[in-house]
Amino acid sequence: MIQKIQKMMLRPKTIESWRRRAIAACYVVAGCAFALALVSAFFLRHKPTAKQQQLWNTTAITAKYGEIRTAGEDNHMVFEYSLENHTDHDYVLENNVAVCLAVRLGSAKDLSPCHDNVAEAIAFPIVVRAGQPALIVLEIPKRYPIPLTPASSSGNRQDYHKVLEQFAATEMPNLRGFVLFDGESHYEIDLPRGW
């Protein structure tokens, strides 16, 4: 009989111990679920978004039209521009995959696809010192039919350039200039029509 009483007394302690363990397990599971919900909410809220596209800087390097001339035995057209560096550091443009030369056509927003071989049109590297101008020469395959040579007098030289400008205006009326894109610096250099 004493043994029965001892067994009965042990039973409530065992039941109480299991009850505590079950409650503790429920708290642990609930805590883990809450922690998982917080972590999930954090990552869903702060999921990486698509990288915002960087705008092209059109004011760092600007260009002014200089003149048109011819070059080579084939008498092809050459456009000269003066580049101005408005930044506080030197600018160097090398010929690489990130360089694109496009032709501005028709309206101011129409651009041709990138030129296949930019190095054929422009001599690289282009170095523009901070706050200083530099000359850029752009050669295109369009040929002037009559060989011209620039005259030594300034009046004749002006006539020479005017003839070429008129030729460019009549033979390439849709040409509004050129645009040089530097993908590394994210510079857009507009080479405007000046003829």
Description:
The chain is α+β, with helices and mostly antiparallel strands and 195 residues long. It has two domains: 1-49; 61-192, no CATH class. It has three helices and nine strands; from the N terminus they run αβββββαββαββ. Strand 4 (99-105) and strand 5 (110-111) form a beta hairpin. The longest helix has 44 residues, at 2-45. The N and C termini lie far apart (121 Å). The relative contact order is 0.18.
H/E series, N to C?
HEEEEEHEEHEE
Task: Give the low-pLDDT segments.
Answer: none
Strand content range: 25-35%
**How far is it from the N-terminal to the C-terminal residue, by CA?**
121 Å
Main sheet, how many strands, which sense, barrel? 4 strands, antiparallel
- Please give the domain count: 2
> Helix- and strand-based class?
alpha+beta
Number of helices: 3
The total beta strand count reads 9
Rg (CA only): 37 Å
The backbone outline, from C-alpha atoms, is rod-shaped
